[in-house]
Amino acid sequence: MNQTLMSYLIPLAVACVVWVIFGVFLILPFSETLSLASVAVEVFVARCQVFFGIAITLSLALVAFWIYNGKKDSTLANLDNVKRLWYQLVVVEAVIAIVLAVILFVMHAGEGLTVGDDLILLIGFFIMTVGYFALCTFFFSPTNVIYAVPLRK
Length: 153
Prior knowledge:
Layout (H helix, E strand, L loop, with lengths): L2 H29 L9 H31 L7 H29 L7 H26 L13
């Protein structure tokens, strides 16, 4: 199979696995301990799964952008810009995690979620965005930009 296609399909497969881990194996046991005021727990779980899906889809798009940008020959000319781009994309991932978590928290503000519940969800969003991006760029970066990723020297 074409290596270019594989460099996009492997992060897609990893994204699916990460979503299943968080969207099913994390949120379902987490939801068994919830007691919400007016919304059914099943509705809350469905909303969390949708928001996790949005988070991992946006992260996958940024990983695809990183791979696309890394395969261009022009990136070899200026690796400092590539390193800067990596850090900028990590910041974008963190902003995505915070924004999605805040939207979910505001949607369920009066439901009686504890700070611990909110913290678990926020950590889940961070792992699904920043953690996924760091993992995929560390292991699946094109050879042009492989050493632009921190800790990859």
